[in-house]
Amino acid sequence: MSLPSIQRVFLQSVAESDPEGHFVDVENIQTYYKIAIPQYHQTLLQNQQFSDEPHKPVVLCLHHFLGNQYTWRLQMQPLANATGCHVISYDRVGFGFTERPIQWEEGKNPYTQIAAVDFAVQLLIKLGYGAKKVILIGSSAGSAISCSIAIKYPHLVHSLILIGSTLRSEDQGPPPVACHILGSAPGRLFLKAALYQYLPLMRIYHNVDAIPGWETVVKPSYRNAILEYRIIENCGHLPQDEKPQEVIDLVVDFLGRLDV
């Protein structure tokens, strides 16, 4: 049996100061993570009762470049309590207390964004959440990883919340025909507003009043999901640190309207 690396031992020893943090091996990389569960789940666990709600999604928080899971310290427990979901954050490869691999197989560089996508999914599986839908909350570069997860694994994703997002064209799927217009923020906002205003196209119907559930089911379905753009005033690139309560309020309100 081989001895653990000096790097692993060092990271574990430094992380011991925080009893809420844990380590798990994901793709042979020692990964540091935290989980917040709703307060009433904690009470059930103390009474040795099953705490997880199978219909609830799980929330996964992805931090920014040059950051770590600490940036979610003020959001995790309030979000868990408000939504009834388990909330997970972790140090992405290369950051925080997660191991920094120094060698890997050809074509399997763990520091790429492509690798980060599968890594996040494997983390959820390792922690026992592989069968659940995922609410992805990404900050800055974490938003790009969140979008890439949604593109590659759309069946896993419940919803996306992107904070101070830094997205490239490849993070948003194949480019549309009018990519030069829609690639800009004003263009995307115009498209969202236009689609919400005019979909579905009324002229293709004879009498919408004859369609069961037109206003409550059919019409909202053509408008797809809830798409919102919010501005937090007097705030920089990391509102979860600078305006934590506003972030909590916006996220809880958004998820509440998605019946979470």
UniProtKB/TrEMBL annotation:
Signal peptide: none
Cited InterPro entries: AB_hydrolase_1, AB_hydrolase_fold
Any single Pfam family the record assigns to this protein: Abhydrolase_1
Limits of the AB hydrolase-1 domain: 57-168
Identification of the protein by name: 14108_t:CDS:1
Organism ancestry: Eukaryota, Fungi, Fungi incertae sedis, Mucoromycota, Glomeromycotina
